[in-house]
């Protein structure tokens, strides 16, 4: 393959991954403005963030296999095209429900696009230093996207409009679609004959959506009967999902992974971590900075820099060095023990100067988060058989996204019932302490049937 096509493949992958990761956080700082402009309640506003996570998580396991069936470049063009169209609809929406539906459509499209971006890298770059450099660039884009989303959210909201946080995807998305179509014509784009369990994906998404909805409205007195209906629907859908997965030959999660105690407990810990770091922390800090402290959207976006910077520095520089000498489980526990005091700090102190109320606690939280996230990802993917590597990675990301949505719903309800966001930070603290309990019960070794790799090989 020519060097021009390799470069095109790299930047197509990176730009597509950028908008996928960016849109997890790009509406965070804009939420107060969205809420005021569209007349949304606090619960409805939280669904602008949760809808993306639920759509993303629900079809991620199925999306990871789509590239093998329809072809990588073709799938990337279709999925990013759909993502761009959903962004346009969301950016022009005048009703809250339209925006929430558009965000869900973005999430579904992202579930197909994100795995395809990595697959495109591996098909356009040969193994060895060439591919390693490409993956390093792709990883850097993925890590920086979330923090960039918060800053962009604040700047666009204040200087243009909250709508720009979604409409900015249009030029990027159109460029990615054109590049993907060029790659499809110029490079090989093989299609396979695999099967995808869309029924299982739909049942899982519907079940988690009902459960999340029940949690998010539990504190609303005007909806006293709806939580019971939503919980009942979620329970019924989960039962249907279990029955369907027992009968289908094309399971969402390979049976070897579903029976692996390390994988199960590790992904429970991942979901609990996601309940804090994926959406909730950013969501409640956004409202605290803008509604309580009176910061402008730009100031609030820049207020996330200490958290983002400390997490990135620790994750990219300190954590890889520590992992050469420390076991992943000990680093996860250390990360939790560092993060928890920062969350307690936010719970106790909710007024005062920026350095004391935001800067100091978020730097502490960023250090803890930077220490725990990579070891946790390593723990749930190391030693997995090569044929299950993609499924294990998809399961980890699914747990993270579902955990983020469920965590935000529970934290929003806790804040609504108590009348203060302090309850939300307490809930995040409890979720992280539960991570220690989950990690402590993970077995030290897998069964002999698993080929165990070193953490260094996995990372």
TrEMBL record:
PROSITE patterns: MFS
Membrane topology (UniProt): Multi-pass membrane protein
CDD domains linked to this entry: MFS_MMR_MDR_like (cd17321)
TM stretches of this protein: 9-31, 43-63, 75-94, 100-123, 135-156, 162-183, 195-218, 224-243, 264-285, 300-318, 330-348, 354-380, 401-417, 423-443
Entries under Pfam families matching the protein: MFS_1 (PF07690)
Key words of the record: Cell membrane, Membrane, Transmembrane, Transmembrane helix, Transport
Subcellular location: Cell membrane
Primary location class: membrane
Residues covered by the Major facilitator superfamily (MFS) profile domain: 9-446
Superkingdom of source: Bacteria
Name by which UniProt lists this protein: MFS transporter
């Amino acid at each position: 393959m020519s060097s021009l096509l390799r470069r095109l493949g790299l930047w197509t992958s990176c730009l597509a991954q950028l908008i996928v990761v960016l849109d997890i956080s790009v509406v965070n700082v804009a939420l107060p403005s969205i809420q005021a402009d569209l007349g949304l309640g606090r619960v409805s506003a939280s669904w602008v963030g949760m809808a993306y996570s639920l759509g993303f998580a629900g079809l991620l396991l199925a999306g990871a296999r789509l590239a093998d069936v329809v072809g990588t470049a073709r799938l990337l063009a279709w999925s990013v095209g759909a993502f761009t169209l959903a962004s346009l609809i969301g950016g022009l929406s005048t009703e809250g429900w339209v925006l929430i539906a558009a965000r869900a459509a973005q999430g579904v499209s992202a579930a197909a696009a994100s795995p395809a971006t990595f697959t495109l890298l591996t098909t356009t770059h040969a193994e060895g230093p060439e591919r390693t450099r490409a993956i390093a660039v792709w990883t850097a884009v993925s890590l920086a996207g979330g923090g960039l989303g918060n800053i962009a959210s604040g700047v666009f909201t204040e200087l243009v409009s909250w709508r720009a946080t979604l409409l900015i995807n249009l030029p990027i998305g159109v460029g990615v679609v054109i590049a993907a179509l060029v790659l499809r014509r110029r490079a090989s784009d093989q299609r396979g004959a695999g099967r995808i369990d869309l029924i299982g994906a739909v049942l899982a998404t519907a079940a988690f959506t009902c459960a999340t909805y029940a949690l998010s409205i539990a504190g609303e007195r005007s909806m006293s009967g709806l939580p019971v209906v939503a919980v009942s629907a979620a329970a019924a859908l989960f039962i249907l999902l279990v029955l369907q997965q027992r009968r289908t030959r094309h399971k969402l999660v390979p049976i070897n992974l579903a029976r692996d105690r390390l994988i199960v407990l590790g992904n429970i810990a991942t979901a609990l971590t996601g309940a804090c770091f994926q959406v909730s922390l950013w969501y409640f800090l956004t409202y605290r900075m803008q509604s309580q402290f009176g910061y402008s959207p730009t100031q609030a976006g820049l207020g996330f820099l200490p958290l983002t910077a400390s997490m990135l520095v620790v994750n990219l520089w300190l954590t890889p060095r520590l992992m050469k000498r420390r076991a992943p489980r000990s680093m996860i526990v250390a990360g939790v023990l560092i993060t928890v005091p920062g969350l307690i700090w936010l719970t106790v102190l909710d007024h005062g100067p920026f350095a004391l109320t935001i800067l100091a606690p978020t730097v502490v939280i960023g250090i803890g988060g930077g220490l725990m996230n990579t070891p946790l990802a390593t723990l749930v993917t190391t030693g997995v058989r090569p044929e299950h590597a993609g499924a294990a990675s998809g399961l980890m990301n699914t747990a993270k996204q579902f955990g983020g949505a469920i965590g935000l719903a529970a934290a929003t309800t806790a804040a609504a019932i108590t009348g203060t966001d302090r309850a939300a930070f307490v809930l995040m603290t409890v979720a992280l302490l539960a991570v220690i309990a989950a990690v402590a019960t993970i077995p030290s070794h897998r069964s002999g049937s698993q080929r165990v790799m070193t953490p260094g090989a996995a990372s």
